[in-house]
Amino acid sequence: AMYEAKADRRGVLVYERSLDGHSPSRLALLGELRQALQDDQLVLYYQPKVDVTLGRVTGAEALVRWQHPERGLVPPGDFIPVAEGSGLILPLTMYTLEAAVAQAKAWLDAGQAIQVAVNLSPRCLVEPTIPDQVRQLLHRHGLPARLLRLELTESTVMADPERALGALMELRNLGVAISIDDFGTGYSSMSYLKRLPVDELKIDRSFVMDMLAEGHDAVLVRSSIDLGHNLGLAVVAEGVEDEETLTALRALGCDVVQGYHLARPMPASAFTDWVVSRVPIAVAGSVTVEGAP
Ligand code: C2E
Ligand code: MG
Ligand code: MG
Ligand code: MG
């Protein structure tokens, strides 16, 4: 029951079941993770989000990794679900928020206004102090609120819609941008989607990755783009792994793409180099890209 809210998230189910309840391995992992937070072993990688038509970088998604002293770089799927099942997700989230905001400010000071997106777990959205903590964080770092984006899944919102709505209104009023993440994997009702103060919808990578091979996924991608646009939202496709998918998404009117075909998540310094040196994505017609020859 502890992990019910994430029953729609593929890939992590097997792992979660094996670490369910109070198994010794789960408790050991939690202890190690608590220590990792204190020892600064968590690092953020950044993956660019790119404008489909202009090729401009519209932002960077911050994705946490655990630089483990023995096990190397541990992916978030191996520890976020466990943290989410305990109170540890709150300090962990504050840690990632702080690091992402500090990075966005460093980029801004270096002349690049790059919006950073941070993933917010269900527990965090219903935590009453979160909006105020975000406000203080932005103030402390001197980062304009519009350079921070929060990504929430449908299930995060639908777990407690009224409370989520209240928290999102507060965050939105600060000027923070908000996305619905992994769209298509949950079950949000249309009426809530319409009421949510979000400005971006991210189509889950599972649909995007299979859209050229699977008719059903192509239909889902197409209708998500239309739905998003009808609600006045920008639509992002995540998991773009090849040029053909990028071309198809452009034809469907998708606004922003994210995926290995553009770039893998990378450390902040590599991200900076990538932004400066990259060649623009192939664009139909003659479009000039900022900073490109
Ligand atoms: P997400 O928010 O949907 O993030 C996108 C995931 O897709 C990332 O996995 C990214 O590396 C991966 N990805 C990007 N492009 C491609 C592609 O072209 N192909 C494929 N196959 N994958 C692609 P990652 O970094 O392993 O993160 C997994 C999930 O962990 C994230 O899904 C997010 O739900 C969660 N997560 C990551 N960082 C944080 C965090 O700081 N806090 C919280 N609460 N959750 C986080
Ligand atoms: Mg995300
Ligand atoms: Mg996603
Ligand atoms: Mg996800």
UniProtKB/TrEMBL annotation:
Transmembrane segments: none annotated. Residues 26-279 form the EAL domain. This is Diguanylate cyclase (GGDEF) domain-containing protein. The chain holds residues 475 to 767 of 770 of the full protein.
